[in-house]
């Protein structure tokens, strides 16, 4: 039975890879619906508003009125981390094949972005699996690769290096010491960002855990939850001695975005309000960039936020972009769910061409 299952999985893997290659430069948008927790099941949230199949999310707006949102893939509440990663693997392969890539998790706080990206020790998420996948692909390749790892967060519009301990530093104001440049080849370079050469998965995993700890420490000091910043991991891969490759260095960004809930609705005050506002602004800048790409505008407003400046060379041209939008089944969350689904819908059907990334 195991062999049959493995064969089926390999067949599905090949199918997914072919589907993915057919899409060329498109942004793919997946939606993951979070299961109701036991508490939610017992509460008045019983009338769960989201129903879905493998491509559609259906919202019951009122009795008899429904709206259907269509995505490249919808993960059901009972989908496993394995199911999710199986669909994401082609993006990892594309980095080895010479593309830049960006995978980001979007959604309201509490909808499972960190669960998808980081996962739990017993059910690892996209980040550890992607890194493992990259090393596996590199081992199987005939070329020699150098792999480098960086990790940062964007908090209140500033970049903070997560591989540098923040514990002893004052949290506010954060010096914007990491400068973003565009090099002669149009690649984004972040000056002073710690970038470490890594040789195996365990080494990267230790750095990743250190980054997560630094993020948590900084959050406690500034009395903010980690959902009030964007957490960004960059893995770059350099292949030397292969002139046929599109580029010598490619990179993948793995991004756990800050919670998308609208700050005015949360009744937050003080620092919480400012943090929420900063997240809202940068997510709206991300939406504007995506929308401008969709409209094939000559001007793409990458400069409007640090988030879009950093991701500039991974959101356009021939980069592979995957958005994982997360939604809740709770009736109380319905407004935010609709906002997230609308945002994700704007990102769909974008055909990114060579001429669309002028600034
Ligand atoms: P976010 O990062 O969007 O704020 P989290 O990833 O922290 O949300 O998820 C909130 C809680 O729900 C966590 O305890 C997490 O383990 C749990 N959770 C999220 N998604 C799932 C899922 N698909 N299956 C099981 N538990 C989940």
UniProtKB/TrEMBL annotation:
Residues 26-350 form the Kinesin motor domain. ATP binds at residues 107-114. It comes from the Eukaryota. Residues 1-19 form a coiled coil. Belongs to the TRAFAC class myosin-kinesin ATPase superfamily. Kinesin family. KIN-14 subfamily. This is Kinesin motor domain-containing protein. The lineage of its organism: Eukaryota, Viridiplantae, Streptophyta, Embryophyta, Tracheophyta.
């Amino acid at each position: 039975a195991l062999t049959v299952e493995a064969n089926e999985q390999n067949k599905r893997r090949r199918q997914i890879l072919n589907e993915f290659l057919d899409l060329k430069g498109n942004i793919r948008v997946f939606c993951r619906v979070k299961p109701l927790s036991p508490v939610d099941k017992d509460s008045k949230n019983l009338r769960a508003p989201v129903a879905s199949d493998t491509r559609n999310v259906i919202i019951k707006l009122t009795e008899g009125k429904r709206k259907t949102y269509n995505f490249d893939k919808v993960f059901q509440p009972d989908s496993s981390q394995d199911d999710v990663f199986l669909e994401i693997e082609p993006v990892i392969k594309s980095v080895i094949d010479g593309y830049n890539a960006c995978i980001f998790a979007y959604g309201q706080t509490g909808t499972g972005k960190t669960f998808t990206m980081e996962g739990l020790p017993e059910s690892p998420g996209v980040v550890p699996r992607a890194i493992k996948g990259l090393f596996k692909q590199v081992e199987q390749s005939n070329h020699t690769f150098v792999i480098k790892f960086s990790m940062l967060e964007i908090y209140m519009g500033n970049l903070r290096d997560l591989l540098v301990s923040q514990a002893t530093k004052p949290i506010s104001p954060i010096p914007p010491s990491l400068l973003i440049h565009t090099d002669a080849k149009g690649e984004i370079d972040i000056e002073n960002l710690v970038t470490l050469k890594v040789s195996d998965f365990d080494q990267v995993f230790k750095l990743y855990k250190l980054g997560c700890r630094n993020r948590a420490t900084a959050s406690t000091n500034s009395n903010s939850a980690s959902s009030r910043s964007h957490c960004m991991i960059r893995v770059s891969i350099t292949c030397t001695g292969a002139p046929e490759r599109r580029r010598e260095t490619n990179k993948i960004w793995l991004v756990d975005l800050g919670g998308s809930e609208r700050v005015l609705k949360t009744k937050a005050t003080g620092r919480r309000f400012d943090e929420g506002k900063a997240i809202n602004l940068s997510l709206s800048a991300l939406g504007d960039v995506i929308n401008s790409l969709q409209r094939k505008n000559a001007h793409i407003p990458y400069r409007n936020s640090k988030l879009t400046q950093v991701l500039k060379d991974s959101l356009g041209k021939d980069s592979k972009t995957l958005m994982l939008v997360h939604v809740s089944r709770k009736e109380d969350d319905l407004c935010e769910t609709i906002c997230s689904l609308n945002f994700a819908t704007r990102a769909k059907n974008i055909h990114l061409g060579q001429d669309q990334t002028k600034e």
